[in-house]
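Page 42, continued from yesterday. The earlier attempt failed because a stray header line got pasted into the input along with the sequence. Redoing it now with the clean sequence only.
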Amino acid sequence: MKSYVISENRDSFLGMQLAGIEGTYLKTKDEIEGAFKEALKNKEIGIIFLTEKAYLMIEEAVIEVKKKYFTPLITIIPDRYGYQRSEGMITRYIKESVGL
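This time it went through. Structure tokens are written below.
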């Protein structure tokens, strides 16, 4: 299975490409949401990485997908500046990962 990254941060996107992970670099909410939906349609993708800011733009859609489907695994990653949300991040991350 493949991994795929959706990033609104160019540096994070390029770093993931250097690690061999395909993906897309987008700026607007509509573009990010469209790329997310397309990635979900691709059955070869097993992990979708979303940078935190991209995730926050489409948070409701991501949570809805996590509640309904087991695959792909959707993981939120920090951009090069680290996580923006720090308070309770670990607890929230675990809850989001399991779809609560």
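Notes: The chain has a mean pLDDT of 84.
Reminder to self: strip header lines before submitting.
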